[in-house]
Amino acid sequence: MFDVTRIPALKDNYIWLLRKGASAVVVDPGDAAPVLDVLQKESLTLSSILITHHHKDHQGGIDTLLAHWPSAKVFGPAQESITGMTTPLRGGERLHLVALGLDLQVMAVPGHTLGHLAYYGEGRLFCGDTLFGGGCGRLFEGAPLSMCESLARLAALPDDTRVYCAHEYTEANLRFALAVEPGNRALRRRADEVAVIRAKGLSTVPSTLAVEKATNPFLRCKEPEVVAAARARGIAENDPVAVFAALREWKNSF
Ligand code: ZN
Ligand code: FE
């Protein structure tokens, strides 16, 4: 089993450091400085960089990291422009990270961006800006249908999957979730817990898929209370994709 370390970066990003022995892999290094700090302090060698999508807060640190570890491999979405990419991926591949002895499943999860990837292995999901604690990414490039399908694919992973998303957005997301589903008791409990965790300056990530399925409105587009909330915002039918689109629109201006 590999270890995962959280490296806070930029305003509210998390860069995930996967390590075994002296070998390290980072996911979405939006900034190099905090990564270099940890790698140098702990004498780790960077063997690979995994990128979920092209936004700067996820790949801005690649340049500098490659300057320090020129032989590190860079994995990312084939249809996006990724600095120094050595292995373009489309989803559906299996990735074997030799240095960590780790097999990852590469999943195509378009929506936030068209090429967005998620990486899954050993019960851990690195999902970038697709699924967040209590929420999901904005639809910058994709359509509601593709994001719905992407979220459904993630939600189909085992319940105890740990969800390593790329931002600490949970508290604000749960405020929105409560506006959608005030009658959801698991959600109220989670919002209370998260408020305590954040007040202590601690992180709410990773969560689990079980928690997300019980409390994240974007995974609950068939639940009667969520459907009713979307209908109150003007949608005419109960179609889950229309419900999802209405929630996403609402959240943008919440
Ligand atoms: Zn993004
Ligand atoms: Fe981001």
Properties at a glance:
alpha/beta; Metallo-beta-lactamase, Chain A; single chain; binds fe (iii) ion; binds zinc ion; 6-stranded mixed beta sheet; 254 residues
End-to-end distance, in Å?
Answer: 40 Å
What is the 3D form? globular
Give the CATH H-level superfamily. Ribonuclease Z/Hydroxyacylglutathione hydrolase-like
Biggest sheet, in brief? Answer: 6 strands, mixed
Give the neighbour order of strands across the main sheet.
1-2-3-4-5-6
The CATH architecture name reads 4-Layer Sandwich
Number of strands: 14
Mean pLDDT: 97
- The CATH topology corresponds to Metallo-beta-lactamase, Chain A
- Estimated helix fraction: 25-40%
Give start-end ranges of low-pLDDT stretches: none
Quaternary organization: single chain
Q: What compounds sit in this structure? A: zinc ion, fe (iii) ion
Tell me the number of structural domains.
1
Task: Report what the structure shows.
With 254 residues, the protein is α/β, with parallel strands linked by helices. The protein has a single domain (3-252), classed as Ribonuclease Z/Hydroxyacylglutathione hydrolase-like (Metallo-beta-lactamase, Chain A). The chain has nine helices and 14 strands. The chain has a six-stranded mixed beta sheet, covered by helices on one side. It has a six-stranded mixed beta sheet with strand order 7-8-9-10-13-14. The protein has a two-stranded antiparallel sheet with strand order 11-12. The chain is globular. The mean pLDDT is 97. The site of zinc ion has 4 residues, from loops.
